[in-house]
Amino acid sequence: MTTVKIVTDSSIQLTAAQMQAYSIHEIPLNVEVGGQQYVDGETITRSEFVQKMAESDQLPKSSQPAIGRFVEVFDELGQDGSEVLAITMTKGLSGTVTSAQQAAQLSSTKVTVIDSDFTDSGLSFQVLKAAEMAQAGASIAEILPELTKIRETTKVYVAMPTLENIVKGGRLGKLAASLTTFLKISIVVELRDGKLRIAKKGRGIKTIQNFAQAKVQELIEHGDRLGGVSFSYVNDDYLPQKFTQQIKERWPQVPIVTEVTSPVISTHAGLGAFAIIYYYK
After folding, report:
1. Same structural domain for residues 157 and 147?
2. What are the strands, taking DSSP E only, across 83-225?
3. SS (H, E, C) 51-83
4. Could you report the per-residue pLDDT of 153-178, keeping only the tens digit for each?
5. Reported pTM
6. Which of these, 22, 53, 189, 219, is most buried using a 10 Å CB contact count?
């Protein structure tokens, strides 16, 4: 029976303990902030990135891992005859999946590359499922349909109290340009099919607070179907912690992750932003 090994990228929301327990291999993205370049998770932590972003007057940048980094990991993991399943963040936010696909063609290992369509915990829901099944001896052919099921019920909403980073980064295109005419506008975007779409917009922080509270109430009402929930944030954890507690009071068994998000989301979303990420079983 062929062993399957799991590879992902550093935009994922996983703890070091989870990575070790499930033998998940992470390829780091490259980030630039304050005029300095770093390797995500290796030469800069998420909290350090946010601090440097707050101090800089330049928009941070991120870039996909080098193809050679993927090839090196793929080749090493396949030395014992194992196959590799690489699950990456959406191509809508990064070229990481393209680097992985190109590396798969160059590697001596049999590699299957999947675009998760998401990032952060939207990516980790799929990666954890794949890793659990791989440890149980499942083949890639058996794993992929289960990932599709998770992907189809995953929702990612990112609440942004300011549009500065998302507009400068160009991720909302022409629609963002029209929003810049408003003062103190806040938005909630949904990451769907690899693209950012505006789910709610309005003046003031109450816009995103009310949207998020309504979404949390919806999760509480359907808590028996929740497979996982995450509140990832850039620098302010007040609302994420509040929402976490509300869900735990009603559904203590539901796994909830409340942590600083990756530099990818921090860069695009900006200070004060947070994400609501979940999927239904």
Report:
1. no
2. 83-88, 111-115, 154-160, 185-192, 195-203
3. HHHHHCCCCCEEECCCHHHHHHHHHHHCCCCCE
4. 999 999 999 877 776 666 555 555 45
5. 0.93
6. 189
